[in-house]
Amino acid sequence: MRRTKGRSRWSKAGKPRKDHVTDHQRLRAALLQHAHVLILGETQHFERGLPTPERQPRSPVIAMALLLETSLGDIVIDLEVDACPKTCENFLKLSKMYYYNLNAFFNVSKDFLAQAGDPSASGTGGESVWSLIASQRGASDVPRYFKPEIIPGLKHTHKGTVSMAVAPTIEGQPVGGCGSQFFVTLADGIEYLDGKHAVFGHVVEGLDTLDKINEVFVDQEGRPLKDIRIRHVIILDDPFPDPPGLVIPDSPPTKPPDNSTRIAEDEDPLEELPEDEAEKERRKKAAAASALTLEMVGDLPFANVRPPENVLFVCKLNPVTRDEDLELIFSRFGTIMSCQVIRDKKTGDSLQYAFIEFDKREEAEQAYFKMQNVLVDDRRIWVDFSQSVARTNTTWSNNPTLGSRGGRGGRGRGGGGRGAFGGREDLEGTRRYRAGGHDDSDSYGMVFDVPGDDVPSCSQPIIRPMVPFDIPYEASNTDVVLRSNDTKPIDLRAHRCVLSSASSFFSTMFSLPQPPSSDPSLLPVVEMSEGAALLRPMLQFIYPVPDPIITTLDELVPLMGTAAKYDMTGVLSRLRACLVAPTFLKEEPVRVFAIASRFDFEEEAKITSGHTLRINVLESPLCDDLKYITAHSFLRLLNLHRHRADAAQEALIITDEVKCMHCNGRGAYTSFALPRWWLEFRDRAKEELRVRRRRT
User: Fold this and answer.
1) DSSP state for residue 460 in the 8-state scheme
2) Phi and psi dihedrals of 328, rounded to 5?
3) Parallel, antiparallel, or unpaired for β 73-79 and 65-70?
4) Residue 625 DSSP label
5) pLDDT tens digits along 431-444
6) In sequence order, which residues have a C-beta less than 8 Å from that of residue 297 and are 6 or more positions away?
């Protein structure tokens, strides 16, 4: 197990840390210990063989140094403001605008150099401060680069030399030059760079940090595998006035500009969690995987579902204990909505556990505390809250010889057939846990049994009667005619304002100037490439009238293509909802997935992919919609089937250390074994998953 720890100024979530040192006085005092005091600057110019510039004497000031806070340590740089004023001004102003904050060292060559200053971390980005100010104002007359200041006396002689990278001539720029990218040398005597790049500073503190950068692991392109970032730049003194238009942001950026997916600069990939935390995390992931498996095979409606709080699980029952006996015993704690002992699917014998549903959660809690380890029919029962969330069966019992029980919770009270309540066919009782109106007496209730077509579902769409299309074609206030491309064209009158509000295409078209008409009484005609059979339902979606009822995918696909063609976003959103209707997902899930992939509907494709798990994709009938999807989309669907099948088979493996003490007893001479119902379920599930895995 791995764990990340944040010691940087910015956390993994991109928020500034409160405990970061931001006291500029303390930082200024630290820099004063390392800065050189200069009177006129002649000393350094004399030592480096530079001519002493003629200027007016000034009072003693601190050398123009700044501090780079990196993820590997701090670096203090002295700038050559007298020899390279334009380059130093560009570097200081970019630092003042937080331009270098969170930039990465994207090119590190061992014993050569470390390069940074490109927000995109690609080596092709970056610009000068004057170009940046112009781009913020929307101007394009300022070149991206400025002329490099290459001084013969400033060479890459010593380790820690700071130079501005000189870009070559590129398309769209008259000449190359300096932008924002800079590098620091990691070794002495790199004469190869002399005269090619502009030296403008020297590292006076932080050589140990350069050693750490020099030892990092990089990929084949020289990019460190673990990000090295400039967390913050602190300017000690800025002798240059701000250029016109310079705007300083209110706060530093909190997110890296290059959106790197590498190891974060505040992440330790080698650190491990303590044993107890690692075990806790492992159990959490195993539980999530098991829940996902149960969702895949259909036993859970969704992985994050929570079990009910008013249902108790009672086990270690005597085989002779009946439903009525438990109901009588537990009824003293409150109203019982259902009480059923689970029985064998073939013989009808008791499996010695039951589910008891109370009307209120408080009643279930009281029964849980009072009935634990109570003697019932010479057996001490075990009571716990139910963790089952399956709602596929109408009753708890799957015994075919007993049938469905009525009597409470609206299940057949007062007689009547399916859906009847109180003797009336038009009434239905309130449905509670596992309650429904379907008696599936021929099914064992296993997760792989597919119910018949006559099973009612609360998720089925409500079928509305067809509403007549009531758009006033002959109304006097219509101002445009849409003419279909049928053999006998049909003119459909409409309103410009309605079409413009529904489609940006029509809005742009109606805003264009039109030639004057010879007959003002005639309405303008728009020749459409669609037929009237497609234009009529499309107008019905646009106008404030009930939407047409779409019963087949053959009707839906042309409407979606037309809505996308004319950029009708509102209509397209309603058609997307129709695409994932339960009827289509049940009958043609593969075709629905193909349509969603064809129109780049990511959410609908994810929903549909889950519904394809109950069928074999390779044996599904071919449809023309599969011609329009990419091989990548179809391969993703096949990989989903393979991974879900593999995960389900792994979840069915239970080690020998896992025992059910409540079902097998806990005496000194009791042999522990897996329950019989689990062995049957496991064998059947493995066989089904093995067949599905082989087919896909």
Assistant:
1) S
2) -65, -40
3) antiparallel
4) G
5) 443 334 444 433 33
6) 447, 448, 648, 685
Report DSSP letters for 570-584, one per residue. HHHHHHHHHHT-HHH
DSSP string, 370-421: HSTT-EETTEE-EEEE-------SSSS---TTT----SSTTSSTT--STT-B
Contact status, residue 262 vs residue 226, Cβ threshold 8 Å = yes
Among 586, 580, 529, smallest CA distance to 558 is for: 529
Tell me if 91 sits within 8 A of 81, measured CB to CB.
no
Which residue, chain included where needed, has tokens 């074999």? 616
Share of the chain above pLDDT 90, in %: 26
Residue 314 has pLDDT above 90, yes or no: yes
At CA 226, angle to CA 223 and CA 229, rounded to 5?
Answer: 80
Per-residue model confidence (pLDDT) at position 267: 81
Same fold, 65-235 and 311-385: no
Helix residue spans in 256-354 (DSSP H): 275-297, 323-330
Q: Which CATH superfamily is domain 65-235 in?
A: Cyclophilin-like (2.40.100.10)
For 255-274, the pLDDT digits (tens) are 899 888 888 888 877 777 78
Distance of alpha carbon 236 from alpha carbon 32, whole angstroms? 9
Q: How many CB atoms lie within 10 A of CB 11?
A: 14
Which pair of structure tokens corresponds to residue 686?
A: 């493995």
Say which amino acid occupies 392.
T
Q: What is the pLDDT of residues 159-189, one digit of tens each?
A: 999 999 998 866 555 567 899 999 999 999 9
* Terminal-residue alpha carbon distance, the chain: 33
Sequence ranges of the domains in the chain: 65-235, 311-385
- Which contiguous run of DSSP H or E holds residue 108? strand 107-109
Residue 90 has pLDDT above 70, yes or no: yes
CA dist 446 and 571 (Å) reads 41
Minimal CA–CA distance to 326: which of 288, 375, 289, 376? 376
422-457 burial by CB neighbour count: b if 16+ within 10 A, else e?
eeeeeeebeebbbbbbbbbeebebbbeeeeeeeeee
> pTM for this one?
0.39
The whole-number pLDDT of residue 365 equals 92
Domain 311-385, second-level architecture: 2-Layer Sandwich (3.30)
Residue 672: CB atoms within 10 A of its CB come to 14
Instruction: Give me the phi and psi of 305, to 5 degrees please.
Output: -70, 145
